[in-house]
Amino acid sequence: MKKVGKGLGVLTIAILAIGINVVGFKRTKENQQLQQVDQIAESIVSQKKQLSTLEEMIGKAYIDEKKEFLQPTLTKEIIDKIENNLARMKVSAEDFDVNAKALPDEVATFAQKKEDLQMEFNGIKKQFNLQSEILALFTNDTIDWQTVTNDVVLTTDVTEKQLNDLKDKLQAIEIPDWRANAEEYVSFAQAQFNRIQELNANFDEMLDNDTITESATYDRYYSVSESIAQVRNPEIKAQFLEQLDSVSQQLGMGSVY
Questions:
Q1: What is the residue extent of each domain of the chain?
Q2: 85-127, pLDDT tens digit by residue?
Q3: Which UniProt keywords apply (predicted)?
Q4: What is the pTM of this model?
């Protein structure tokens, strides 16, 4: 009987211990859930501020409320900053690392707002990148996108493919005034490119290993000379003038310098 009593005592103690552990586990779980709720509440406050900041940054990317032309002061650093801030926005249960049921309805509003801002930012980034690609066609430091000015100077390494790719990309842009101006700048580049190609073709026919051919006539010489005067890039113009000088001297007209 003593052994039975002792056994029951041990069993009772074990049951009580299990009960205490279960209660303790429940309390721990409840505390963790409460902590999650507090963390989500704090995060929501933070997300509100972040959304407000992002909305302001995206709004400032444009020159006015029409949202057509970008600010001249917009830089890649600003673009990257907006992109990184958008990536850090928490708008889903997975972002918060909680069950979806634990998320307040307010978070769904954040998700939609983030999606809208993301779409708007994607358009800004595409427009900014296209501006950078067009600017890279020229030696100019900047371009006026609102008022087109034909003062651009083509660089020495522009290719036909580069120009055609830009034309194709611009076709997909639905910003009428900006697109028209961008296409006009590309047309300026194309015109300068075509002139350079035509001059190269002329000299290929007029000179063979630096010796003039039958194609090197006086009329053609004067026509080429006038065309070279229209070349804006000083480096490219100097190369053509050197070839023209060779033609001029062999035609008995003296040096062009």
A1: 2-124, 136-257
A2: 999 887 666 766 666 666 667 777 778 888 999 999 999 999 9
A3: Membrane, Transmembrane, Transmembrane helix
A4: 0.81
